[in-house]
Specification:
Shape of chain A: globular
Structural class of chain B: alpha/beta
Number of helices of chain A: 18
Order of helices and strands of chain B: EHEHEHEHHEHEEEHEHEEHHHHHHHH
CATH topology of the largest domain in chain A: FAD/NAD(P)-binding domain
Helix content of chain B: 25-40%
Largest interface: A-B, 79 and 77 residues
Distance between the termini of chain B: 32 Å
Strand content of chain A: 25-35%
Number of helices of chain B: 16
Oligomer: heterodimer
Number of strands of chain B: 11
CATH class of the largest domain in chain A: Alpha Beta
Strand content of chain B: 5-15%
Structural class of chain A: alpha/beta
Largest sheet of chain B: 5 strands, mixed
Shape of chain B: elongated
Strand order of the largest sheet of chain A: 20-26-21-22-23-24-25
Helix content of chain A: 25-40%
Number of domains of chain B: 3
């Protein structure tokens, strides 16, 4: 027989003013199963909680109802209180008498009547509550970081420093990402490689980090704490265990005219090699599509010259699996291709370059050794026009968002140009200049005031070549859109930051969300910016949205802290609100007939097949089974089950039915 | 004057409560009883926000919180009405905002089907409100409740539905007149079959002799007059007993029987309806395609050869291009015409039409027994923890049985009409099934049995599913 205790809180005057709490308590006393009911001024206070604890013991309560504020407010408080008195916390339910009763009604009689109904429903429900125990899930104490840019490096290092093993996967053949391509960084003008390469080396040599470059994630199975990841190590055609990185192969490779991706097509590379001199690991791979040996069967110079015999043209892709407990997604971004901006020089004029190409021109290790020379003829441009928001903040073009980093890097570009070409003119065409950040506005003012960069508030409509120069046709937005023609020797477009091309398939593989633009979705835009809606998978860096380096590093460290918080626990504990398939004794075993409509409806792939065998191993029945590690407790499966063979703990059919019945007498 | 709602009078178990603390108060007019089923993450939080912002609304709504609209089963809604609610609100996160990513999408599809079914049954759709309310939309919640409560005050108590629980005598006046015009399908119970096509008989004998089938399902003549009786044979010598029913029944229902499942590889006569049903059974993993051998027959019983029943071409040969597009699955032309006639009536007339039929239901469950899709290990109506729906053959019992039975066939019923043929009371069950088949086709492009691939209708969703009925 149930022994329910009911505690009605006045919440000072908050509930008591509109609801007759004493009367509600008195009504509760007469409800079936209730053995104790009282009202108190502040039930959440220590004396209020003590009253609950005392009553649980004294009246041997089997269930507790607290009529108080919303369960979203104090459910945890009161469940802890009853747990302290020795009662299972899930035998405590809250009747919301404040937010959804006292505060929204004015008539004392109506509000009190509703309060009694609400309490009656809760009393009926709690009698059907089962004691639930937190679910314990074993943990694999290893993390996977996808992406070897600054976000991935930082996350991997932080996790490794915390004492947890990390596998860091990068699809290209070096760590570094976009940051390695940058010349200097705003607002301090640190050399990007000078601050990045030590971190790359550290990540590669850390005892807790296993680095897998030239490697891709193929498949992710499992759930928080227990992921199985299938990785594909792409064929490098070089045995890295033998290679010493001496460089003979790429110095002698006859294929020298391949446009280099690292230099954004401005420089050239060989068919075998490392993407840039400071690459980590500093071991080459062969680009199969451009290698003469693969294309014609003749050549093999690298193989002949390699002092350690490391070249292996027969190498194949290798798949292997790794078990990890948590995953950090740090897959980064890409910049919009110029070809998407046909009005700006048909998208293929050599002297109209992207910001990232400008970084390579300005970089000491770039194709021009840091001299600003325009790609078409190698001349030093005397006038450079910088166009901001090329593709960003353009709803018609499909990208309504601000790419966030362009205002700052354009200021940096203009300033670097002025430092390198003293008599050059730098003109920035901007919609606005957005410089929130520590030292950012000062940096922009410095470009304007010290380095005489000219900012023109305008919108560039078209760029076309004329007499060996480029004409930027723009609308002067401070002068009623009057047409301006600006002649420049080179134009730098601050092209929009856009999501990686394969982001959707990556998100689907991981079972995480992405927004309409293709940025990966965080669990909550303000309060859970590093988590995804899939437990155990975290986000770091620009895969979630455009970010500058400090923000990226901050988020990466945050994600690492989340991973450490998860993986340093002895095991995983989670709320036991999960679905359960009905089981019964033989010969029925379960009323489930295994139609697996639930499995098709489950948003989390939490429904598995369970085979029931007899002692001889003969298959008797195939039914559904819920994996409690994957189930998030939404209950969608319950609604699609025709035979009512699946139920959701905490919101069982019995609980809801009882509450409904008590409400609609 | 209408009876005043007394929030506290007796407990649901019928035990009167004594010494009530709060005495019922007489008010001026009718106050409706409204139940709201809301999701925890959006609407419940939005309702809390309304409180925190000190907005006010009518006190008629009693809220039940669930984790997700995905968990809001139709049983909850139907039960709330059966228990005397004058209106029901269902509310959760906006599409795209679901805390569980897609629970609300599936709920939306379910509500669309439920609304169409309730409409066919003549339930007043104004009594069911569906609204998306985000955690930030306290004001929308207030507006939803206020508007709905006002509407229910205007509409008055939902006595039409509540009355099915009491002495119900349907008003048949609107349907009086010529019996010929009344919707409903005449079942030709005396439909005889045709003898086996010689080629078919030879193929069956060969299969049994060579062991490619351990048994063959077909029909035989009954001892007493009546439609052909489904049966199975295991010996080649017994092939002569079998007949082919041109219309009626659905052989695949035999797969529900454990003794048939134990037979091993089974051959069966496959007509259009069997082919469709086999596809649904395969989609729901109730059948191993390796364990069946299909002897295809056409509309006249002519042997078409051993066929791959999952082959769309085999199914399509019964369908003219236009009729299949407009009228999915195997319902007869007569059923579609009757449905159109029924839907042309007013909801109140439809309500009376169905009550007139349901009052004859004796809950023999012949409809369930004859249906190949009713293959649950235990039917919802036989479950009593909790007993969502009354089992008695009375007003509420019959109403809820026929409603939920039809709903469970949404996107699954292939229109074979076996249930209607089996019904001793002549209830036109195909009309309910056809109504849902039409919704599934019209709104979601889903045809039961057209393919065995894909996801069951109610487990699936599209982000752009129709939702013009949701606030």
């Amino acid at each position: 027989m149930s022994r329910i205790g009911v505690f009605i809180c006045h919440c000072g005057e908050n509930i008591g003013k509109t609801v007759d709490c004493a009367q509600v308590a008195q009504a509760a006393r007469m409800m079936p199963g209730v053995v104790y009911a009282t009202d108190y001024r502040y039930t959440c206070s220590e004396p209020g909680q003590a009253q609950i604890r005392q009553a649980v013991v004294e009246h041997k309560l089997t269930g507790v109802i607290v009529g108080a504020c919303s369960p979203r407010m104090h459910e945890t408080t009161f469940r802890r209180a009853v747990a302290a008195a020795g009662l299972n916390p899930y035998l405590c339910e809250i009747a919301n008498l404040r937010e959804q009763c006292a505060w929204v009604h004015t008539n004392r009689h109506d509000a009190s009547a509703k309060a009694v109904d609400t309490v009656r429903a809760a009393v009926a429900r709690v009698q059907r509550n089962a004691p639930l125990m937190p679910i314990e899930i074993p943990l694999t104490k290893r993390a996977l970081v996808i992406g070897g840019g600054i976000a991935g490096i930082q996350a991997a290092l932080d996790i490794a420093e915390g004492g947890v093993q990390v596998t860091l996967v990068e699809r290209s053949n070096s760590l570094g990402g976009h940051m390695a391509q940058l010349s200097e960084t705003f607002p301090t003008l640190d050399c990007s490689q000078c601050i990045l390469t030590p971190r790359m080396v550290e990540a590669a040599s850390h005892p807790n980090i296993r680095l897998e470059t030239y490697c891709q994630v193929e498949r992710v199975d499992g759930y928080v704490g227990n992921f199985t990841v299938t990785l594909r190590r792409k064929a490098r055609y070089v045995d890295w265990s033998k290679c010493t990185g001496c460089g003979t192969c790429w110095q002698k490779c006859p294929q020298k005219k391949i446009p280099g991706e690292f230099d954004e097509g401005l420089g050239q590379r060989t068919a075998i090699g490392v993407p840039f001199p400071q690459a980590v690991p500093s071991k080459p791979v062969i680009d199969r599509d451009n290698c003469l040996k693969f294309k014609t069967g003749k050549c093999g110079i690298c193989e002949k010259l390699c002092p350690t015999g490391a070249i292996q043209f027969q190498q194949k892709d290798e798949e292997f699996t790794e078990r990890v407990g948590a995953i950090v997604v740090a897959t980064g971004f890409q910049v919009l291709d110029k070809s998407h901006l046909p009005l700006y020089g048909d998208g293929d004029h050599p002297d109209i370059i992207t910001g990232l190409q400008f970084e390579r021109l300005a970089s000491a290790s770039g194709p021009t050794d840091g001299e600003i020379r325009r790609p078409s003829d190698g001349k030093v441009p005397r006038t450079v026009a910088f166009i901001q928001c090329a593709g960003s903040r353009d709803a018609a073009g499909g990208r309504a968002y601000c790419s966030k980093i362009c205002c700052m890097y354009t200021a940096k570009h203009a300033l670097l140009y002025r430092h390198k070409v003293h008599d050059g003119k730098a003109i920035v065409l901007c919609m606005d200049v957005r410089t929130p950040g520590k030292g950012y506005d000062e940096f922009y003012r410095r470009a304007v005031e010290v380095d005489a960069v000219r900012y023109v508030r305008s919108r560039a409509a078209r760029i076309y070549p004329q007499d060996g120069q480029l004409v930027v046709q723009a609308a002067d937005t401070l002068n009623a859109g009057k047409r301006m023609d600006i002649r420049a020797d080179m134009v730098v477009l601050a092209t929009a930051a856009i999501p990686q091309e394969n982001v959707r398939s990556v998100a689907q593989m991981l079972g995480i969300g992405y927004d309409a633009d293709g940025w990966l979705s965080e669990a909550h835009p303000k309060l859970r910016p590093m988590e995804t809606n899939t437990a155990g998978i975290y986000l770091a860096g620009a895969c979630q949205g455009p970010k500058d380096i400090p923000e990226t590093v901050a988020q990466a460290s945050g994600a690492a802290a989340k991973v450490l918080g998860l993986l340093t626990r002895p095991q995983l504990q989670r709320e036991p609100i999960v679905a359960r398939v009905h089981r019964t004794s033989p010969p029925v075993y379960s009323t489930c007939v295994g139609c697996f409509t639930c499995a098709a409806a489950c948003p989390y792939q939490a429904i598995e097949k369970e085979e029931i065998h007899d002692r001889q191993g003969v298959l008797l029945k195939t039914i559904a089974r819920v994996n409690p590690g994957l189930c998030q407790g939404c209950g969608t499966c319950v609604s699609v089950c025709r035979s009512k063979s699946i139920d959701l703990d905490g919101f069982t059919e019995e609980q809801i039915f009882s509450a409904l019945e008590a409400l609609t007498v | 004057m209408t009876k005043v709602h007394l929030p506290i009078h007796e407990h649901s178990n019928g035990r009167p409560q004594v010494g009530l603390a709060i005495e019922p108060q007489e008010t001026g007019g009718f106050e409706p009883r409204i139940i709201a089923f809301v999701c925890k993450w959006c609407t419940y939080a939005g309702a809390d926000l309304a409180g925190t912002s000190r907005m006010t609304y009518a006190p008629n709504v009693r809220t039940i919180m669930l984790p997700c609209t995905g968990r809001i089963d139709i049983s909850l809604v139907v039960r709330a009405f059966l228990q005397g609610s004058d209106g029901v609100i269902v509310s959760g996160c906006h599409p795209g905002d679901c805390h569980y990513t897609s629970g609300n999408y599936r709920a939306r599809r379910r509500w669309m089907l439920l609304r169409d079914l309730l409409d066919t049954l003549g339930v007043d759709l104004r009594r069911l409100d569906l609204a998306w309310v985000s955690a930030a939309e306290g004001a929308k919640w207030v507006k939803t409740i206020q508007q709905f409560t006002d509407d229910m005050r205007q509409l008055g108590p939902y006595s039409a539905l509540h009355a099915v629980a009491g002495d119900y005598s349907p008003d048949l006046a609107p349907l009086a007149g010529s019996d010929d015009d009344a919707p409903g399908v005449e079942v030709d119970a005396a439909e005889a079959g045709v003898p086996l096509d010689p080629a078919l008989a030879a193929a069956m004998r060969q299969a049994l002799e060579q062991g490619t089938a351990k048994a063959i399902l077909g029909w035989k003549r009954r001892i007493v007059p009546g439609p052909l009786q489904p049966t199975w044979i295991t010996e080649a010598s017994a092939v002569g007993q079998l007949m082919v029913a041109v219309h009626g029944g659905n052989l695949t229902r035999l797969f529900k029987q454990p003794q048939v499942r134990k037979l091993g590889r089974v051959g069966l006569i496959v007509r259009y309806r069997e082919a469709l049903a086999l596809n649904v059974l395969l989609q729901e993993k109730q059948l191993d395609p390796q364990q069946t051998l299909a002897f295809g027959v056409d509309g006249q019983g002519h042997f078409l050869g051993v066929v791959d029943w999952a082959d769309a071409g085999f199914i399509r040969r019964w369908e003219t291009s236009t009729s299949a597009a407009e009228k999915p699955s195997g319902f007869s032309e007569q059923t579609w015409q009757s449905l159109d006639k029924l839907m042309a009536l007013s909801p109140a007339q439809r309500w009376d039409f169905w009550q007139q039929h349901f009052v004859r239901c004796i809950k023999c469950y012949a409809c369930r027994g004859s249906c190949p899709m009713c293959n649950c290990g235990q039917c919802f109506t036989d479950k009593n923890m909790p007993q969502w729906f009354p089992t008695a053959a009375d007003g509420p019992g019959n109403f809820s049985w026929h409603l939920v039975r039809a709903f469970h066939l949404a996107g699954r019923c292939v229109g074979c009409g076996a249930c209607e043929e089996a019904c001793p009371a002549g209830i036109p069950l195909s009309l309910l099934n056809a109504s849902l088949a039409r919704s599934a086709w019209k709104h979601f492009g889903h045809r039961a049995g057209a393919t065995s691939a894909g996801v069951p209708l109610q487990a699936d969703f599209r982000a752009n599913d129709l939702e013009n009925f949701i606030l």
